[in-house]
Each structure stands twice: as C-alpha cells, then as structure tokens.
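Posting this for the archive.
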Amino acid sequence: MTDSPYPHLFSPLRVGARTLRNRICLPATVTNFAAANMITERWTQFLVERARGGAAMVVTEVVAVDPEAVAQATTVIGFDDRNNAGFTATSTAIEDAGGLMVAQLWHPGRQQLWHPTKSPAGVSDGPDPYSWTVAHVMDNDEIHDLITKFAATAARLQGCGLAGVELHGAHGYLINQFLSPWSNRREDDWGGDLDGRSRFVREIVAAIRAACGPDFILGLKMPGTESVDGGIDPDEAARITSHLAALGSIDYFAYGQGNFSLSLENHVPDMYFQPGHF
C-alpha cells in the first residue's frame, strides 16, 4: 500500500469544542431540493448520505435568516419555526451516521436578484454590477435588526440539535459586501478601514456567541479572492482572517473565490483559466 499524500485525513480533528471523527467535510453545496422553502426528504437524504459515506462535518446549502433573504422556492428558511421538524430530523440522522450538521446562514444583500417582490438591501449606493439592480442602502437600525436575526436563527437551529452554523460571507453576498472595499463605500462606523468593514460580521459573531454559548461551532466562509479590481485579493483575505481570528470566537474559516457580480465565472472555472489559489 502506497503512502497517502494526506496522512492525517482520517485522524480526528478538534473544531471548537467538538471533535470530528476525521477531516472530511461536505462544504455547502446548492441542491435546490427544498420545495416551497421547506425541507424535503430528498434534501435531508442528500446530507445524511454524505455522513454515512464518511464525512465528519456536513454543511448545508444556504439557510435564509430573514424573509427578505428568500430568493426562490428552493431557499430553505430558518428565520421561523416552520422547518424545525426537518432540521431536527436531519441533524439526528447525521449524528446517528457519525457526523455533525452545520447550517450555512445567508443573506444575499443587494444580490436579491431572483425573487419578483423582495427588496434588495445594500451596503452602499450604486447598482449591482451583475444585474444593475439598485438596492436600498441599509441604515443603522436595519443593520442591527439583521444582526439580531442571524443570532436568532442560529439559536433556533441549535435548539433543533445542529452542531453549529457557518456564516456565508463569500461570493458577493451581504457579509462579503460589508467586508470588501470594492462594495463597501460607507463613511460611517460600518465602513472605511478594516475594523469598520468587519464590524457587521464581528457583531454577528458576538451575538451568536451570546445566544448559543462557547460550545456551538461557528465558522465563517469568506472570499479568498473576489477577482475584481479593488476587491479582496489573497493578501487582503489573509489580513481579514488575522483580524477576525484575533477575536477568538470563530472556530474555522472557509474560503471561496469569485464574486457573484463581476466574476461569477470564477466560481467554477473551466480549463481556460490559469491555475488559481484554490
């Protein structure tokens, strides 16, 4: 038997207060298996089968934290109790298979592009470069309201038996819009330097920790590179990571590439693209 290039792949790994049985994780993967914004048996079984196949941590696709974040009928909602039974059944089955379930919390911000009646909420003035949708710029009260909704959704999912949540702060969605100097042109305490641009996610993290305690897994998916001029590149991503890691409240970081607006093609690049960082 040849030596594995990944000798630690099947050894346990500590993530926050929990121990994974190995280092295999299913990252958030869009399935569109939900129906009428409700968890279906097919949605559950997709995740459970990954745990049965060996994944120690299973991250769901996006879960909306606010009614205005619902993009389409296949977006799972987590902001009220309607999916509690589905979340509970899924997390129980995943744990029975030896895995831990983590939900990816999401708000699209100005990229609320699919729903015919929802109102896009933006960080700064200006249209979304992908769709030219002009978003409503969030004021201080609206920002604090969303922070509360992120924490309330996390607490609800903890009550359903989930091991943790991952904040979706990549691909140009709302948290990414705050973090990036390309999309965040605010001149108040929510913009400007790195401390200002990271305030939104820092306050979400603090609110979730206050609601869910220190043993609940809390991860952040953020851009490794946005592939847009003036946006987050690998050096800036490293700087953001160091800044947020110093909080001591985030258990793991995950990285994505591309921004849904001007570099959507980088999400799943074809062989024409030069080798990237990921």
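The chain has one domain: 14-265. The longest strand covers residues 217-225.
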